[in-house]
Design brief:
Alpha-lytic protease prodomain-like; Alpha-Beta Plaits; 9 helices; 62% helix; elongated
Amino acid sequence: MTGEEKEHGHGSGALAGREDYSSSLRTGVIVTLLVFGVEVAGGYISGSLSLLSDAGHMFIDASSLLLALAAIRAAHSLPTKKRSYGLHRAEIFAAFINGLLLIGVSGWILYQAYQRFLSPREVESTVMLIVALIGLVANAYIAYYLHGSHDLNVRGAFLHVLGDALSSVAVVVAALWIMVTGQTLADPLLSAGIAVVILVTAIGVLRESTGVLFQFTPRDLDYDEVIREIAAVPGVLGVHDVHIWSLSSSIRVMDAHIYSCEQDARENEKIKREIKRRLERFRIYHSTLEFECEECRDAGDQVCVLVNNE
């Protein structure tokens, strides 16, 4: 006899216990955008390209903070008939556009740094130092309030802010160097280094967001290990048609066909609960499991694992 049952995981485990850092993130966005404006103005007034580069880094921070805030908001958004998954993908789309913008910003900084190497310009080191110190204090303030979160998006934003704090330290050192020695080449040299960091970050953002948009298996997930974990559940005779993808940066989704010939519906429920419990190890909280009582002869090129229970 063939029986089919579908179980949909709604991801309550993914949201349970999540810290609400919305207030801290909103404050961080406001402070970061204010410092971004100050650094742009300071870079223009002082003639410091490294300050403008650090402003570009601050733009990355503001974007990462906004994306983390959007992820928290989207996680609580209710699906509708027209948007059955809610607004989770908005975060990824924004990340993709952000990555493209950052590549343009890094390209502009590298070009300007090249021009400064050819024709060095005078830099107002005092203004440069004061603005860089403001940026450093702002980053330290934001990092303090984001430190210690277990939410992946908030942790990612924290690391961005921490990286920019180090960048601000470098600008402070460059300002002091120019103030003491008068050698302004330190400014374009540092700005080129910051631009490379921005470029690497942008490429990483594009790679990650593209993978999510094309529904690739998460890069840090061992697909074969997931299959083995499901197949090891007592009562599972085989697994096929397994698809694992990310709905957003923090929500993973899976569907699979489970070969099991248990006649008792209660036994199938036990198997489903155990599979879902084991999937939590891989941070998969949304799953659809279809139970079948026949071998996967029609699985085609899909992964098919049959379990020998002898």
